[in-house]
Amino acid sequence: xxxxxxxxxxxxxxxxxxHLDIIERASCLFDKVIVTIALNSNKKPLFSKEVRKExxxxxxxxxxxxxxxxxxxLLVDYAKxxxxxxxxxxxxxxxxxxxxxxxxxxxxxxSPDINTIFLMSNEKxxxxxxxxxx
Length: 134
Ligand code: COA
Hints:
Shape: globular
Number of strands: 5
Order of helices and strands: EHEHEHEHEH
Radius of gyration: 14 Å
Strand content: 15-25%
Largest sheet: 5 strands, parallel
Number of helices: 5
Low-confidence stretches: none
Helix content: 25-40%
Bound molecules: coenzyme A
C-alpha cells in the first residue's frame, strides 16, 4: 500500500517547542514525516547544519515515524525525490498567512501534485520564533 509521506521544511535555527508541536500533530496524521532543514535559505544560521540536525533528532526521538534530513534547491524537487505528496507548514498568527500563501501557491505552480497542509500550533506558542530563542 502507498505510504503517506509528508515533508516539514524550515530553517530550524534552532528548532523550538512550536515546531515540535507541529511535528507531533503531523506524526499522527502521516505514515512518515521528514523534518528537513533548508540549506539555501537567505538566513545566516547561528547553528551549523549538523548541530541543527542533532537537536531535531534528539527532541523527536520519541516519535517513531520521523526522519531528519536537509536539502538544497527547490522544496518540491526534494519532496518528489523523497516520494512525499504533502508539505507541512505551521500557522501561528495571521501575519504568517501572506508569506505562507505565496509559498504554497508557488509550490503548487511548480508541482500541482504536491499539496501544502497548514497545521495550527498550540496557542501558547504563537508568540514564539527561533530568533526569540536565540
Ligand atoms: N512555532 C514556532 N516558531 C515557528 C513555527 C512554529 N510552529 N513555525 C515557524 N516558526 C518560526 C521559525 O522559528 C522562524 O523564525 P525566525 O524567523 O526567527 O528564524 C520563522 O517562523 C519562519 O521560519 P521557518 O518556518 O523555519 O521557515 P523559513 O521561512 O525559514 O523557511 C522554507 C522557508 C525553507 C520552507 C522555504 O524558504 C523553502 O521552501 N525554501 C526552498 C526553496 C524553494 O523551494 N523555494 C520555492 C518556494 S517559495
